Structure to design on (277 residues):
């Protein structure tokens, strides 16, 4: 918590967005009440947590109604409501999930697939972001594990697990969700990150990888979630290429601050070219 020099400004910061919201609301109530002492603080925080839980459940139920997705487990509905307090590059994740549900549903209807299933996959594709501060791993894996636990269909689980990866043709709903995800994220006004900051982050990833011996090229893709590195076949072996991959990932962990995970892929290629004349 930062009390700024600016009169009347208090900044509350936390990795857990729900706890941050509880703190913000509790502070507002305490300041308005004027009675600030330990027992009163505990009383206000407990009351605020109960109120916020009800509000979160209501937000999840409203999102399900808006996306026309029904029959979800109560815990999944609660996690959906929590996405209201999560942003990705300033884009509200709950609104983004509803948009993806709409777009995936329309795409499915156009090509003769089940629009209802596509909307369900789209609405739940980022559900892991509601719990990624509680579990290890990226939001796709966390989301897939949660959906599997609450007995969602394989199509929904796969859409959550692989919507950022190379999709398999035998899972068409994952391909639709990936396309809808890209449409929602890239539409004008969806995300407020400046071009300069974006380019700087990509260049930083590539420059760190390029500083290692044997690296010929490095390409940041997936908005910085993945780095593809090409190493020289003459300067490296398969064993040293694996070592370079581990060292680059370790360098990112030590030098950078970022949400989720960054996947590092190292490619080593020997190419022989001859001209027949």
């Amino acid at each position: 918590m930062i009390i700024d020099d600016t009169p009347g400004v208090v900044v509350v910061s936390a990795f857990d967005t729900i706890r941050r919201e509880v703190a913000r609301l509790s502070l507002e109530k305490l300041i308005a009440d004027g009675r600030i002492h330990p027992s009163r603080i505990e009383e206000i925080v407990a009351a605020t947590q109960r109120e916020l839980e009800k509000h979160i459940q209501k937000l999840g139920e409203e999102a399900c109604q808006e996306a026309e997705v029904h029959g979800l487990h109560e815990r999944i509905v609660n996690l959906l409501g929590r996405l209201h307090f999560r942003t990705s590059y300033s884009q509200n994740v709950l609104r983004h999930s509803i948009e993806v549900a709409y777009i995936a549903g329309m795409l499915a209807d156009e090509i003769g697939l089940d629009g209802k299933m596509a909307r369900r996959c789209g609405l739940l594709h980022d559900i892991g972001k509601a719990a990624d501060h509680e579990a290890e791993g990226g939001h796709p894996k966390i989301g897939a594990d949660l959906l599997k636990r609450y007995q969602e269909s394989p199509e929904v689980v796969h859409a959550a697990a692989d919507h950022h990866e190379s999709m398999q043709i035998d899972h068409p709903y994952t391909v639709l969700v990936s396309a809808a995800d890209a449409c929602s994220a890239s539409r004008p006004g969806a995300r407020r990150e400046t071009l300069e900051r974006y380019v700087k982050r990509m260049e930083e990833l590539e420059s760190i990888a390029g500083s290692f011996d044997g690296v010929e090229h490095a390409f940041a893709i997936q908005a910085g979630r993945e780095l593809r590195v090409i190493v020289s076949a003459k300067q490296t072996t398969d064993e040293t290429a694996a070592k370079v991959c581990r060292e680059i990932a370790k360098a990112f962990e030590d030098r950078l601050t970022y949400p989720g995970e960054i996947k590092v892929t190292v490619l080593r290629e020997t190419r022989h070219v001859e001209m027949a004349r």
